[in-house]
Amino acid sequence: MKAVVYKSTGSWYRVKAENNEFKDARIRGKFKTDEITSTNPVAVGDEVTISEEASGDVMIIEIAPRKNYITRQSPQNKNLQHIIAANLDQAVLMASLRNPRTSTGFIDRFLVACEAFHVPAILVFNKSDLYREKDNKEFQRLKSLYESMKYPVISTSLFEHSGIEDFKNSIKGKRSLVSGHSGVGKSSLINYILPGTDIKIQDVSGWSGKGMHTTTFAEMYDLPFGGAVIDTPGMREFAIHDISPVELSHYFAEMRPLIGQCRFNNCLHTEEPDCAIKNGVAAGIIDTGRYISYLNILESMEEKKW
Ligand code: GDP
Ligand code: ZN
């Protein structure tokens, strides 16, 4: 029978079978997933084949090839990737300009990761009720900046109940991964559109009792109006994986059309002469903040080599 994975704890997988029944399934031994070296063979969103054994145990016996997936670096081993979720229609970053403020550097890292994983991205800025005049201006600036790169930008306030319909429309009928810094209102918003779910701010079910180690698991929830959201408690950052420094600018949507115009075809857009990207920044075609994000990510990639 075919099924979809809704939650993975590492040893158990909660799956929804074709007949809409939820079951707890396991895997036997190791699966060959040669796509990436990952710490988890089965991820939320995976389409699997299950088989019910005579003992009553439900086993996952096959995983269908993934349309896409998003990973993060394994906290235990820097060279390993942990698949957060697979087969996504989009990734939503919940951000805010107040309490807490999400930095544009963080937003740009998220967008680069989404580009690299071929997952369309959406930005939702919550807590607009807390904005002062200068925050409203900043929001308008960021909205036109990111929308010029074709990323939808939505403003919400749960407290004033504004933008909630826009948010619902943007996730309707799609499978969306939702992430963001803790405190931006992610759980409140998901709980609001999914009455009865009661997502906790911090999932401590992975408490091992051996030191301060908590594990968090992604979980998928069906939406009453079609589609599903995948909550990623405690996951701050996606991996910027398998990108070489010279490719990085390809994942900045607005830089892509200019790249071929640099003097050197391996231009990193830092010190090189006749660089189309730097000229674009100087001419105001490329946002200075985005270029700074580019330099910061480039620097973090170069550090990793050592
Ligand atoms: P999460 O860590 O992103 O899941 O954030 P929570 O959902 O736990 O929310 C963090 C805090 O922000 C809580 O005190 C919420 O009541 C509050 N909050 C959520 N949405 C809004 C909003 O639209 N405006 C304001 N002012 N506070 C909000
Ligand atoms: Zn260049």
Outline:
Helices cover 23% and strands 23% of the residues. It is built from 6 helices and 13 strands.
Task: Provide structural commentary.
The chain has 306 residues and is an alpha/beta fold. It contains six helices and 13 strands. The chain has helices at residues 104-116, 133-148, 164-171, 186-193, 276-282, 288-304, and strands at 2-8, 13-17, 22-27, 47-52, 58-63, 69-73, 81-86, 90-96, 121-126, 153-155, 175-180, 219-222, 228-231. The strands form three sheets. Strands 10-9-8-11-13-12 form a six-stranded mixed sheet, sandwiched between helices. Strands 1-2-3-5-4 form a five-stranded mixed barrel. Strands 6-7 form a two-stranded antiparallel ribbon. Helix 2 (133-148) links the parallel strand 9 (121-126) and strand 10 (153-155). Helix 1 packs across helix 6 (288-304). The protein starts with a strand and ends with a helix. It binds guanosine-5'-diphosphate (GDP) and zinc ion (ZN). Guanosine-5'-diphosphate is lined by residues 126-127, 129-130, 157-159, 180, 182-188, 201. Guanosine-5'-diphosphate (GDP) binds next to helix 4.
